[in-house]
Amino acid sequence: MKVLRVNSELKAVSLIIFILFQAFFVTKNSFASPFCGDLANALGPLDYTNPKDRKTLPIVESVHFTPEVVSLQESSGNILDGISYTLRVFPNHHRALHTITQYEIRERRKSQQKNETYKPPMTVHGYPASAECYFDRAIRWRPNDPTVRLLHGLFLHLSGNLEQALAEYKVSERIQPNLADLQYNLGLLYFDKKQYDLAKEHAKKAYQLGYPLPGLRKKLITVGQWP
Q1: Could you give the CA distance from residue 127 to residue 88 in angstroms, rounded to a whole number?
Q2: Is the distance from CB of 83 to CB of 73 less than 8 angstroms?
Q3: Burial class of residue 37, CB neighbours in 10 A (0-12, 13-18, 19+)
Q4: For the chain, where are the alpha helices, taking DSSP H only?
């Protein structure tokens, strides 16, 4: 009976060790391979805002982020491949993030015209080639890049997620309040929310900072909120 009790205790200890190992393994891998992919890459990740890292930009852009890809020309081959490669090397590449936003909004509209739901294709790395995933990666890489937060807010705004967009615009504003583009888009968002006093406030800031386009001002004129 004594031997049996020892064996039972050894089995219990072994079971505990196994459970702890499994928990550690799952936790470790959940951090190593998040839903939108690990940031590790053969080249990079590099910081789009870092002058030293930007020395690599011409190599990447001349091959992968070509003018044809930027303008979403179908003749450029697989547009997503070019954008994806660029954003794997430079997760916070501002122009590529803007391009993936334009691409996805365009593809969503195409799907809507067919009464279908747009489903982003999967990358070879195992995560969706979606704008949301690329913004997830950019924010994990450089959470305090105000332009990344602004661009994410713009994507959310264009997607109709006004409250989430406002939250991202506000993060950008806390980091760098004197961005003309940010103030302009905040004004547009408040206009869409029919909060015209706040729209006017941010419009004035945008134009004081030199924002060139008159669209927001014209919108405010139509509701008697300008000058």
Answers
A1: 12
A2: no
A3: buried
A4: 2-32, 57-63, 67-70, 79-89, 94-113, 131-141, 146-158, 162-175, 180-192, 196-208, 215-222
**Mean residue pLDDT across the chain:** 88
For the cut 60, the answer to whether the pLDDT of residue 18 exceeds it is no
Backbone angles phi, psi at 82, to 5 degrees: -65, -45
- What is the three-class DSSP state of 47? coil
pLDDT over 80 at 168, yes or no = yes
Helix (H, G, I), strand (E, B) or coil at 122: strand
CA 34 – CA 126 distance, rounded (Å): 10
77: left (phi over 0), alpha (psi -120 to 50) or beta: left
Provide the whole-model pTM: 0.84
Token pair 């909004």 in the structure block, residue: 105
For residue 120, give the nearest of 83, 175, 171 by alpha carbon.
Answer: 83
Structure tokens at 206: 């945008």
**CA dihedral over 80, 82, 87, 89, signed as positive or negative:** positive
